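Journal club prep — side note

Before the paper discussion, L.F. wants everyone to see what a predicted structure for a comparable chain looks like in token form. Sequence:
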Amino acid sequence: MSFDFDAAVQAPFRMQPGLRRLAAGAPQLTPVAAGSRHQREKLAVLSAFADQALVARPGFDPAPALAALCGQAAAEHPDHFAWDGRAATATRLGVRVVDGEVQHLAGGTFGLGDELPRCLALQAPAWRLPALLALTFVEDLAIVDATDASVPWMAVALPSHWAPEDKVGLHFAQVHAPVADAERVRQAGQALMRLVSGPERWERFVWNVTDHPRLHAHPRRVPSPRWQHEPGTIGLPRAWLRSERQTFIPLPGRAQSVFTIAVDVQPLADVIDSHGRAQRLAEAVASMSPEVLAYRGLTSVRDALLDWLATR
């Protein structure tokens, strides 16, 4: 995964956009490996909870954004994805969607071999192309609209403790209303939407330390309260670094962009076990305000986490 730890983990910690320009030609999509963790978890979510992952504001037309996204996917990864304006083909996965119809081209390389087309067939025809993209690439997807600073469409199977069905169609400030210490970010929402829907391409990174090992972290399916084990066991493989690389694919002339979210979860000990990362992470956590610690679910384990990091 392409999470940039050194760029993302900074002290003092501040809730901020953290945008940086993408290098020319830098990929924004990541093909899944057949049977990988990302694909298995997305399959499970889209098979059982698609109504919470594939959501849109009534009347919104995602077709131009989807066409641009398919073109981007084919240009970046021609060995994995093909697009001719009507037919979208996941070439390595043996599945095609044409005008909302699913075609099974070849057996898959895990399970019974037909998991993907069966999952796609469960979706309404209008959602089969987005579902194919979601199962072909690591990234979750959303469309941001700079004309009203809203997020009118989402294909998000692996949310990080937020519910797509509750956020879709809302204004940027409403989407980010629960975020602690982020008033400046909320106030800048309209300008940020215009920026990421402009001619340049941008990326940003977010992270948290969590006790939740799955990629899928919908709040209605994550145990609460968090950190139910003893805080003193934080050094065991129960602490994880949850990270996201987010990018924006602008749609020229439409004041919109496709928002990509690549989620990863790795054992914390593995991530920090080199290059002074334990100290960098400790400094970031130590500088978090009480409000940020509460928002990120770290209040009860802050001291234990800092003590453990000091031993690394």
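L.F.'s comment for the group: The two ends are 24 Å apart (CA to CA). Keep this in mind when we get to the figures.
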